[in-house]
Amino acid sequence: MAYKKEEKHIVYNDTEHNRNWYSDGSCELIDHPKDCAKDTSIDTEYIDGNHASYYGGENNTYECIKVIEAWGEKGNWNYEDGFYLGTVMRYLCRNGNKKDNAKIQDLQKCINYLNMYVEKLKGEQ
């Protein structure tokens, strides 16, 4: 019996992070139209490298990305720390400040990412 390779297909459309996840485990960024104002699913404040106000804003010494990068540069975080803990920091920084996101929604995301990381670390012991 010949093995038939399954066609790759989208299993999850991650609109928050602008990625499509595929059945083979791969992912790719979703291209954005140049005129994002017509697409209400895209946060226009955060397009093209803008420093969104809900993450502190470019002129804030403690803007979320600056803090995450500083901790990474000091060697305090490895790659997994950067992913999980950086994501937690993102949601903490913006909690209740991003349009259409309730404070409890962002705080629950923090808890979810911390729980995922704790379970991953437990599994490595």
Q: How far is the N terminus from the C terminus?
A: 41 Å
Radius of gyration: 18 Å
DSSP E strands, number:
3
Computed structural class: alpha+beta
| Secondary-structure element series | EEEHHH
Strand count, sense and barrel status of the largest sheet are: 3 strands, antiparallel
| Beta content | 5-15%
Mean pLDDT: 75
Strand order in the largest sheet: 1-2-3
Given as residue ranges, the uncertain stretches (5+ residues, pLDDT < 50) are 1-5, 33-39
Helix proportion: 25-40%
Number of helices, where a helix is a run of at least 4 consecutive DSSP H or I residues = 3
Describe, in plain words, how this protein is organized in 3D.
Helix 1 runs antiparallel to helix 2 and helix 2 runs antiparallel to helix 3. This protein is of the alpha+beta class. Helix content is 38%, strand content 10%. It contains 3 helices and 3 strands, in the order βββααα. A hairpin with a 4-residue loop joins strand 2 and strand 3 (27-29). The chain has helices at residues 64-73, 79-94, 103-124, and strands spanning 10-14, 19-22, 27-29. The chain is globular, with a radius of gyration of 18 Å. A 3-stranded antiparallel β-sheet has the order 1-2-3, with no helix packed on it.
Q: What topology does this entry show?
A:
Elements: E1 10-14, E2 19-22, E3 27-29, H1 64-73, H2 79-94, H3 103-124
Antiparallel strand pairs: 1-2, 2-3
Helix pairs in contact: 1-2, 2-3
